[in-house]
Write the structure tokens for this entry.
Amino acid sequence: DTEVTQTPKHLVMGMTNKKSLKCEQHMGHRAMYWYKQKAKKPPELMFVYSYEKLSINESVPSRFSPECPNSSLLNLHLHALQPEDSALYLCASSQGQGEGGQPQHFGDGTRLSIL
Amino acid sequence: GESVGLHLPTLSVQEGDNSIINCAYSNSASDYFIWYKQESGKGPQFIIDIRSNMDKRQGQRVTVLLNKTVKHLSLQIAATQPGDSAVYFCAETGGYQKVTFGIGTKLQVIP
């Protein structure tokens, strides 16, 4: 079992719906990430939170709104999505800012389908 | 052998043979590299990492080689097993927490 838990595992929504993806980790990590992964493609970074503050936004459309309520939780709020937003959304965490890079621990993702 | 399909390069190896998966990275300023394994329906799983001040690192049945001169990274898997079948991604970190993944290679182990 992964140490990063994502819910729901699957989500089907219409283009006018509002939904949220949730991510939780209890490893004491202080950096959390959202990635988008299309089929047969690598994960693409969307957002990075470091010590509960947004540190990187990779020019993601505003219909995706991240939130980090505390150091263990990361949400991704969805509104007015487009069919091309259908993908696997992965959450990851790492220890946080330190010397050099650090490995990220991934959840198993939420598979999102937009009708 | 290795083939490049429309979307994902595939490497087929016989069970028990050694596998070598290659990756070219783009940012000469990258200083930290990771190999991830992604099985169907799962998120990427950390395998091994290496920093730019090293050129080789070994783990259990896996070895990562880094050639900074040609910006090339490889993952060697010894005695490949059916459970090694997955998609393997290299990833580079060139800046603060910003990770860029390579295109990935699908490893198929033939029993």
User: Anything to note?
Assistant: Chain A has a mean pLDDT of 93. Chain A touches chain B at residues 2, 4, 31, 33, 40-45, 48, 50, 55-56, 90, 92, 94, 97, 100-109 (CB under 8 Å). Residues 20 and 95 of chain A are 25 Å apart (CA to CA). Chain A is about 0% helix and 55% strand.
